[in-house]
Amino acid sequence: MSEASDPRVDALEARVAHLEAEVARLTVPAPSSSVSQPPPPEPGARLDLPATRTPSSPVEKPVSKWAERRKVQVDSETILKWGGVALVVLAVGFAVSTAISRGWIGPELQLAGAIALSLALVAGGWRLRSTRLPWTHALCSGGAAALFATAASNLFVDQTSTDAAYVATLVVGLLGFVLARFVPSQWVGVVTLTGGVTGWLVIGEAEPPFVMTSICLVAAFSISIALAVERDWFGLRLLAHIVGLIGTMWLGGVADTSGEQVWTIAVGAGVAVSLLSVPSRGSLVSLWQQLEVQLSAVLAPWVFVTVGMTFEVDSGTSVGAVGLVAGAAVAVIAVAIRSRILLPHFVSLLLGASVSISIGVAAMANTEAAFVAIALQGAGLVVLARTLENSIRVYINAAVLLLIGVFFALIDGIDAWSVDTDLGEDVARLGVIVAVGLGIWFTRQRDVQRFASIIVLGLFLIWLGSVLVHVPEGQAAVSVSWAIVGISILVAGAVRKVPDLGTVGLAVIGLTVAKLLIVDMREVDTLWRAGLFLVVGLGIMRLGFLLPRLTGAESGDGD
C-alpha cells in the first residue's frame, strides 16, 4: 500500500530536477574555435582584467597624430597672430614715416590715418570676441598700443598741444580699461596700463606735472586693481602694484610743497593698503599671484624710502627712526590682520619689516650695536619660522642675518687681536656671538646644532683671545683660558655621556697644546713659559686620571 504523496516533497523534487537540467546545459562543451585561447594563469598570479568602459570612466585613447598636429597648429597660430599684428603696426609706421618724409600726406591726414588704423584693429578684435578670442586679445591690444603711441607722438603734440596729448592719453586709457572689462581681456588691461604710463612719461619728457600725474596715477591704479580683482587677473594686479610703488616714489622725489608731500603720503597709503590685502585674494595657483605675494615683502622698505624722499630726510638719526617706525608699523599691521591673509603673504610682510628695522638700527646705532641688533633679529626670525610651520623663506632670511653676525664677529675679533678695543666693543662682539648661539639653539635641529655650535665655539675662542691677549703676558692667559674651556667641554661630555662633546673638548685641548708649542714658545717669557706648561700639563694629567671615574668606566670594586 503506497503512502500518500506530500505536496512539499513534490515541489522540492521539481526544483532539483530543474537545477539538474540547468547544470547539464552549462556543462556542454563549447564549439571549437580556430583562435587559440591563452593558457590558464598560474596559481597565485595576478589577473589583469581588461578595463570596461562605463559612462563614469571612459576609456582613455592614445593621442592621435591629428591631435599632435593640432597642438603644433595652435602654437603656430599664436606666434603668427602676435607676429602678424606687430608687423602690421611696424609696416604702417614705416609707410607713414616714408609718406611724411616725402611730403605725400599732410599732418592732419597722418593723424587721421593713424587713429583710423588703430580703431580698425580694435573693431576687428571686437567682432571676433565670440568666435576667435585669442585674436581679439592681439588685435585689441595692438589697437590700444597704437592709440597710445599716436597720442604721445610729436606729430600729435605739434598739431595740438601738450595738454591735449595728456587728455588724449587719459581718454584712451579709460576706453582701454572699458574695452578690457567687456571683451574681456587681461592683455588689453596690461597694455592699457603700460601704454598709459609710458605715453605719459614720453609726453612730459620724464617730468610731467605733479598734480595731473598724481591724479592719473591714482585713477589708473584704482581702476586696474578693481578690474583685476573682479576678473581674477593676477598679472594685471602685479603690474598695478609695481606701477603704484614706483609712481609713489617718483611723487616723493619731486614733492616740494607741504601740500604735495601730504598728497604723496595719501597716495602711498592707498598703495600700502592694497598691498596689505589684495595679494591674499586667491589660492596662489597663478604664478603671477605668487610673485605678487613676494612683492609685498618690499612694503616696509618702500615706506621707509618713500617717506625719506618725500621729506628729504638725510641725518643718520632721522633715517634710522623712519626705518624703525616703518618696519614696526608694517609688522604690527601684519600681526593684526594675520587671520585674514594667506601665510606666505604674512611671511613676506614680516620679512620686509625685518629689513626695514635692520636698516633703521644700522643708521641710528654704531657699527657694533647694529650688528648685535641684526644677530638678535636673526635669532628672532628662527623662532618665528618655527611658529609659521617651519617657513623656509623665514629660515633663509634668519640664516642670512646670522651669517652677517658671524662674519662681523670673526673679522672684528681677528682685528681686535692686534688693536686693543674698548670694553663696549668687546661686549658688543660677545653679544653677537650669544645671539648667533641662541639662533642656532632655537632651530631645534640636532644636525644644525652640532655643526653650527663648532662655529660659535670658534668665535668665542677668538673673542676670548682678543680680550686677554692685551693683558700682561697675554698669550699665556689666552692659552690657560683655552685649556680651561677645552677641559670643561671634555668633562661635560664625559658626565653627560655625549661622545661628540668630548671630542670637541679634546680638539680644543689639542689646539691649546699646538698654540703652546708654536706661539707661546716664541712670545712668552721663559719663566712664564715653564709655569704655563706646568699648569696646563698638570691639568691635563689630572683630567686623564679622573676621566674613567667621570665616565663610569672605573669598576670601583677595590680589586
Structure description:
- By secondary structure, the protein is mainly alpha-helical.
- Among the domains are: 365-470; 485-552.
- It is built from 21 helices and no strands.
- Helix 8 (210-231) runs parallel beside helix 10 (258-277) and helix 9 (234-254) packs parallel to helix 12.
- The protein is flat.
- Mean pLDDT is 81; it is low at 32-36, 41-74 and 555-559.
Topology record:
Layout: H1 7-26, H2 65-101, H3 107-127, H4 133-151, H5 154-159, H6 162-182, H7 186-203, H8 210-231, H9 234-254, H10 258-277, H11 287-295, H12 299-310, H13 316-336, H14 343-364, H15 367-387, H16 392-418, H17 423-442, H18 446-468, H19 474-495, H20 499-523, H21 526-551
Defining key terms:
21 helices; 77% helix; mainly alpha; disordered C terminus; 559 residues; single chain
Order of helices and strands: HHHHHHHHHHHHHHHHHHHHH
Head-to-tail CA distance between termini? 110 Å
Largest sheet: none
Helix run count: 21
Taken from the alpha-carbon principal axes, the silhouette is: flat
Q: Percent range for helical residues?
A: over 70%
Low-confidence stretches: 32-36, 41-74, 555-559
The overall average pLDDT, rounded, is 81
According to DSSP, the number of beta strands is 0
Structural class: mainly alpha
- Write down the Rg: 40 Å
Q: Beta fraction of the residues?
A: under 5%
